[in-house]
Design goal:
This protein has 373 residues and is an alpha/beta fold. Helix content is 38%, strand content 19%. It binds glutamic acid.
């Protein structure tokens, strides 16, 4: 199974605050350099790297004279605001030293739940990856209200992994994996190298929600592993303390704990696009477009559209029809009103016809399209 990790193309790395900062909140430059160097080298080897980084709130504390996290929400958000800048500044500098460009993405829970936001996030991430940029993602702690937050970056990283259909999610933590018992209190605890199926027992081992290893700890990580593996993505928990964890994981070495992807996962996700949502309308495409979609894995462009039926908004699910038969379903980037105006047009005409500045080339992007015929 570890062998598969060598082949992984799209890799998400999540790094926690303690793996990035000193206890006083200031950036641990040594650790950050080691992290960035490994990510750059994997990117140089041809992998598509995405970083989910915590540390904003902690990094903002010293500049504002705080010695610990303030209880006041606005002050905490102020710390995140200052700290996110500090963090990005350092990342930009270090990645640039190795010749890589980074792009910051700050998300709130709404961005991962609301269809139009979700699609937008997905499109932006896909564009950044296509441009060879390394996205650096964090929750938008500055505006996210506590009750509506994703809350922890382990969950955020699995969400992003699902959105971009990553091959593997690597969570770098202050512990080097899942142990048979809490290693802090039980000297007989041993590291579990592989979890092929997550069961109640796995959760029990992780300590339960109420334990000191609860929220944000191992229990959360198991829930996150469940999410990732159910989406067809391998997940690894490995040590953020060691200076070559990423390299070793990507070479298939037996470090950390591997949660094995569920084979059915990907089809479950496609199932969601295809059957999980109410159909809002349909798009009929011409023969050339049908061939491109079925035989060449292409996206649907306005030029290939001959008919638009129903009333829908960006992010809705539509049926794709060819010669009177439904061949696919997908999430659409344009409303039915706009599609009626741009159908049959070349991509470069979209902005002029709709009288807007920014447009999507694709009416339905390949990544949001499921062939069902
Ligand atoms: N978004 C938080 C930060 O950057 C971290 C959340 C987490 O640690 O999971 O400070």
């Amino acid at each position: 199974m570890r062998e598969e990790l060598r082949q992984a193309k799209r890799v998400i790395v999540k790094v926690g605050t303690s793996s990035l900062t000193h206890a006083n909140g200031r950036i641990n430059i040594d650790k950050m350099e080691v992290l960035v160097r490994q990510i750059c080298n994997l990117a140089n080897a041809g992998k598509e790297m995405i970083l989910v980084s915590s540390g904003a709130t902690a990094a903002g504390l010293p500049s504002l004279g705080f010695t610990s996290r303030p209880d006041d929400i606005a002050l905490k958000q102020a710390a995140a605001s200052v700290g996110q800048g500090i963090l990005l500044h350092m990342y930009e500098k270090l990645f640039a030293e190795y010749g890589h460009t980074v792009g910051q993405i700050l998300v709130t829970r709404e961005d991962t739940v609301k269809r139009s936001h979700y699609l937008n996030l997905r499109n932006t991430l896909t564009a950044l990856i296509g441009l060879g940029v390394i996205p650096i993602i964090n929750e938008n702690d500055v505006v996210a209200i506590e009750e509506y937050k994703i809350g922890d970056n382990d969950t955020l990283s699995a969400t992003v992994a699902g959105i971009v259909e990553a091959d593997v999610l690597i969570i770098l933590s202050d512990i080097d994996g899942l142990y048979t018992a809490n290693p802090a209190t039980d000297s007989t605890a041993t590291l579990i190298h592989e979890v092929s199926v997550i069961t109640d027992e796995t959760y029990k081992i992780a300590g339960g929600a109420g334990s000191s290893m609860g929220t944000g700890g191992m229990y959360t990580k198991i829930k996150v592993a469940h999410m990732a593996t159910n989406s067809g993505i391998h997940m690894i928990i490995a040590s953020g303390e060691s200076d070559n964890s990423l390299r070793k994981v990507c070479k298939g070495e037996n470090i950390g704990t591997l949660f094995v992807a569920n084979d059915q996962g990907v089809s479950q996700k496609h199932h969601w696009v295809a059957y999980g949502k109410r159909l809002s309308g349909s798009i009929t495409i011409d023969e050339g477009c049908t061939k491109a979609v079925l035989n060449h894995g292409a996206s649907i462009l306005p030029a290939g559209i001959i008919e638009v039926d129903g009333s829908f908004e960006p992010g809705d699910t539509v049926s794709i029809i060819a010669k009177g038969k439904e061949i696919a379903r997908g999430l659409v980037n344009y409303s039915s009103t706009d599609l009626l105006k741009i159908k049959g047009h070349n991509t470069q005409d979209i902005a002029r016809v709709l009288e807007i500045d920014t447009t999507y080339d694709e009416v339905v992007h390949r990544n949001n399209l499921v062939i069902i015929h």
